[in-house]
Amino acid sequence: GAVVSQHPSRVICKSGTSVKIECRSLDFQATTMFWYRQFPKQSLMLMATSNEGSKATYEQGVEKDKFLINHASLTLSTLTVTSAHPEDSSFYICSAQLTGGNYGYTFGSGTRLTVV
Amino acid sequence: AQSVTQLDSHVSVSEGTPVLLRCNYSSSYSPSLFWYVQHPNKGLQLLLKYTSAATLVKGINGFEAEFKKSETSFHLTKPSAHMSDAAEYFCVVSGWETSYDKVIFGPGTSLSVIP
Fold it and tell me: Is A97 within 8 Å of B34 when comparing Cβ atoms?
């Protein structure tokens, strides 16, 4: 149980275009979801925290107009990278918070974004 | 504010010998602590978690960790390393900050297992 499905797993886009990454909770309701970015051989950096129905809370240094997060339902959160540039190329991972007796976090399998 | 320090960026052990991956944290509130493992080109898998219950936590694949509040530590151990344990390990702290639950990853420790 508590599976998060993240799509696409890989995407290549042209510089200047926008890319949407989806994260779905398959068998539970995810009130709070997190978006991370991971550079090669580095740790996960928290980009933003989103609560269903509310505006996302962005970490310092993350451009909210560039990384648009939508969490309109309890089972879906999306990250849109707008006007992508090569420096946006990275591994993006979503995570959903688990509540109740199974407190913790479950992670999507990640999206490898390459901007050419 | 919360933070996590993993003292070793890389640890190398021989197969069959003990593993120790160190983690220290800082948190304004009573934190929850986790260890995750990431194999190359794969997602994250939860090894174990501490959420204010027993301070000695047992996880999957023979791993365990002990929460020591006085030392603000949550070190990960395993009595005998296996080749399949070679991976990247992340210590994670979470806690309520201002108005939302915040999750912070440590920098990671790369574990190599020598045959």
Answer: no
- B4 three-state secondary structure: strand
Q: Comparing C-alpha atoms, which of B33, B21, B23 is closest to residue B87?
A: B21
Contacts of residue A28, Cβ cutoff 8 Å, sequence gap at least 6? A1, A2, A96, A98
Residues from chain B that touch A104, judged by Cβ atoms under 8 A, are 32, 34, 46, 49, 51
Compute the mean pLDDT over every residue in chain B, rounded to the nearest whole number. 89
Q: What is the mean pLDDT of residues B95-114?
A: 81
Find which of A43, A58, A69 to mutate to test the B interface (most B CBs within 10 Å of its CB): A43
> What CA–CA distance (Å, rounded) separates A94 from B103?
12
**How far apart (Å, rounded) are the C-alpha atoms in residues B63 and B60?**
6
CA pair distance A24, A27, nearest whole angstrom: 9
Q: Report the residue from A49, A104, A110 with minimal CB separation from B100.
A: A49
User: Is residue A115 predicted with pLDDT exceeding 80?
Assistant: yes
- Are A103 and B34 a contacting pair at CB < 8 A? no
Least CB-CB distance to B49: which of A32, A104, A107?
A: A104
Tens of pLDDT, residues A67-114:
999 998 899 999 999 999 999 999 999 999 887 666 788 899 899 999
Residue B79 to chain A, least CA–CA distance (Å): 25
Within 8 A by CB and 6+ apart from A18, the residues are: A80, A81, A82, A83, A84
Beta bridge partners of B24: B5, B73
